[in-house]
Design a protein that fits this description.
9 helices; seven-stranded parallel beta sheet; binds 1,4-dihydronicotinamide adenine dinucleotide
Length: 246
């Protein structure tokens, strides 16, 4: 396949739907072989089959489990080649006010959103360093920058991703591996589908551009950060939020 990412292997966590699937689509369009990694195995396999071009595959993996991350990166490397693009996108919410937040809801969100990105980065970085080439894109959130009542676990996990991104960027810069983050605003996906019309309307009024984002709005920025046009960009957090967090 031709394109700016031809010959590269991209691993996208949580890629079976929503933002992760939109990112998988643009990376495939640019010629990468895409590994869609998700706890929804059937969803991952189906999503991979829908991508443009050949050589894509879907895998089961819970990113919160370090052993599964190591095994998945090994399986992807064997089947599709060394991972040179890693998109840490898998994420969950377990919202409640702090006084009522259950220990398990705090732990689950930190485990998937923050530890998951650490697990995958640690599993995939050796191959990138061996190649002296790689790009890691972490999907944070405006909530990690601005905070939100009822989302202390989510906000902490997404702010943690910003610290992880900058530290990884510093640690890997001389090895030819870049690491950046995207902080999406409110994007229309299954994650936000539960919001009622009033909330969506209220949110829209707080967004300078006056509309919720689409997964493709985030995917196009991920494509830029993953690809050669961002070759001198590392350690950055790009808000893709219609102006919400400026
Ligand atoms: P979604 O809920 O539609 O998709 C999330 C995907 O992650 C699903 O395919 C799910 O099966 C997978 N996943 C969940 N736990 C996993 C685990 N332990 N291991 C592997 N895969 C797992 O969510 P959406 O909206 O597409 O969000 C994607 C990312 O973008 C998340 O990190 C989210 O926090 C972030 N984000 C979303 C925003 C939004 O408004 N939708 C705003 C800001 C950030």
């Amino acid at each position: 396949m031709s394109g700016a990412l031809a010959g590269q292997t991209a691993l996208v966590t949580g890629g079976s739907r929503g933002i992760g699937f939109a990112i998988s689509q643009v990376l495939a369009q640019d010629g990468a072989r895409v590994a869609i990694v998700d706890i929804d195995e059937k969803g991952a396999v189906t999503a991979a089959a829908r991508l443009e071009g050949d050589g894509h595959a879907g895998y089961f993996c819970d990113v919160g489990d370090p052993g599964q991350c190591r095994a998945t990166v090994a399986a992807v490397t064997r089947a599709q080649g060394i991972v040179t693009i890693l998109v840490n996108n898998a994420g969950i919410t377990r919202d409640s006010l702090l006084v009522r937040m259950k220990d398990e809801d705090w732990d689950a969100v930190i485990r998937v959103n923050l530890t998951g990105a650490f697990n995958m980065t640690r599993a995939a970085c050796r191959g990138m360093m061996k190649r002296r080439s790689g790009s890691i894109v972490n999907i944070s959130s405006v909530i990690g920058l601005m905070g939100n009542a009822g989302q202390t676990n989510y906000g902490a996990s997404k702010a943690g991703l910003v610290g992880l991104t900058k530290s990884v960027a510093r640690e890997f810069a001389k090895r030819g591996v870049r690491c950046n983050a995207i902080a999406p605003g409110y994007i229309a996906t299954d994650m936000t589908a539960g919001l009622d019309e009033r909330t969506t309307g209220e949110l829209g009024s707080r967004i300078p551009m006056g509309r919720l984002g689409e997964p493709s709005d985030v995917a196009d920025v991920a494509r830029f950060l993953a690809g050669p046009e961002a070759r001198y960009v590392t350690g950055q957090v790009l808000a893709v939020d219609g102006g919400m967090a400026m």
